[in-house]
Design a protein that fits this description.
Helix content is about 55%, strand content about 5%. By secondary structure, it is mostly helical. It binds adenosine monophosphate and tryptophan (TRP). Adenosine monophosphate (AMP) binds next to helix 1.
Amino acid sequence: MKPETKKKVLLSGAKPSGELHIGNYLGAIKQWVALQDTHETYVPIVDLHALTEPQDPEKLREQIMTTAADYIALGLDPTKVTIFLQSAVPEHTQLMWILNTITSMGDLERMVVYKEKLAEGKQALAGLFTYPVLMAADILLYKPTVVPVGEDQRQHLELARELARKFNKRFGQTFPTPKAFHAETGKKILSLQDPKKKMSKSHGGMSYIAIADAPDKIRQKIKIAVTDSGSAIKFDPITKPAVSNLIVIYHLFSGTAIKDIEEKFKNSGYKKFKEVLAELVVAKLKPVQEKRHELLENKYALVAILNDGAEKARQKASETLKEVYEKVGLT
Ligand code: AMP
Ligand code: TRP
């Protein structure tokens, strides 16, 4: 009998802190979908991370379900991948504690996302500060080889790698150092309202396109998206960041090469280009929205998927935690 070849492991997650948007999809989830057949895939909905900023409990409950529906509607196949709630697998917070004991304050103080949040006026809560340690625990529990995330998570992932190395050095080889995987062109989709910022749920409703946005909302958001000076549809992220961002969105949704997009629209102004782009995004999201709607009609089935996922995740997570407890002397 042929020995079973062990699949490589993928882990990544998204926070249910609002609506998922096309930045989440193009920068991260699209890669999970592309790799799900070749990787043993773990995709938690990181609900504990959502709590690092104030959430309305009822809304959070709803957002957890819509995020689960979005994951599947965007192409993750629950019969192949493990979709689960981070909070349903207590090993995440248990490993976090162990990792806390080898994390230096200096490393956390250097985290750009944390500093940005404070600059935005967010309260300096301990949970927000130690959030990258929980993320490291999410990752290391599953010993993944690949962690596909957007550019904004690069530094957090570097911390996870550093903690893996530190732990291994002190307690013996335990964790493989996980590799980041950033989409070549989609790793940083920019805000439609301010191309100096990434597309984000926290920068106002007109700055992002939600997966669930109605067609007219999508048309409106693209219509009023900021553009650069000049009228050429030219890809140049330095001098034309806003238009280049729209070109990247077109490229990633259509598969058309960037130079072919420039050629196709060389005689169109921004208005025409935006109209065609809006129709493309509307058409691409239509089947996703239909599937999403269908999934949310049957919440019991969705909960069953999450319960099943949590059970599978716990098998792997509890094995790793047991190994860690033994190594640090807790048994
Ligand atoms: P979050 O919703 O912040 O939990 O993000 C989930 C995933 O989407 C992470 O891998 C992020 O790096 C990625 N992501 C979020 N915003 C963007 C963006 N504007 N461009 C590319 N990737 C993003
Ligand atoms: N911190 C990530 C974000 O804000 C979400 C996240 C939590 C994550 N745990 C993770 C991403 C583990 C990848 C792997 O986007």
